[in-house]
Amino acid sequence: MAHVDFTVLAAERLVLRRFRPADLPAFAAYRSDPEVARYQTWSAPYPLDAAERMFADLSTLHPDTPGEWYQFAVALHGSEELIGDCGVHVRADDPRQAEIGFTFAPSSQGRGYASEAVRRLLDYLFLERGKHRVTAACDDRNVRSAALLRRVGMRREGLTVESVWSKGEWTNDELYAVLEREWLDLQQG
After folding, report:
1. Is the residue at 157 inside a domain?
2. pLDDT tens sequence across 82-121
3. Could you identify which of 11, 60, 149, 165 might form a hypothetical disulfide with 120, taking C-beta atoms 3.0 to 4.6 angstroms apart as the criterion?
4. How far apart are CA 118 and CA 102, in angstroms?
5. pLDDT digits over 148-175, tens only?
6. Which GO terms describe its molecular function (predicted)?
7. Is residue 154 domain-resident?
């Protein structure tokens, strides 16, 4: 089912596309910002060689490959300037379900870009890939990410208390989800 001919998902102001070698310095730079990395699984600084390994790993993957995380580069339409990335993990045990995540450069935050990118990603997963359910999780202290998930139409399903050991401490995860039928209703409403 997986194929590698994926190229671009276009949104109004953005494109979600495969990473290019020219993106990697900017990718490593915003992921090296301690505030960007604070609630993520990596630590700052984020080395360029890690970005290069990610690029190599993704070069032959399709975004809908069960059991794999796929990172979409998010760039401004026209300029191709990298402003962030969105990830999707299709479950290996049930490929009708996926988890998403997102990271944006500080200079691109607060402009609605992340909401636009996540909405386009959800359209892709539901309308083009036929997913039944998409989930997301975020540290409960990451109020901006939680607000974005609610803003795009995901519902809070729960809180797992001290469920993740991250950067030397136990953290809580807020769980969000949206079903295909809910997404379709949101788009029609």
Report:
1. no
2. 999 999 999 999 999 999 999 999 999 999 999 999 999 9
3. 11
4. 8
5. 999 999 999 999 999 999 999 999 999 9
6. acyltransferase activity, transferring groups other than amino-acyl groups
7. no
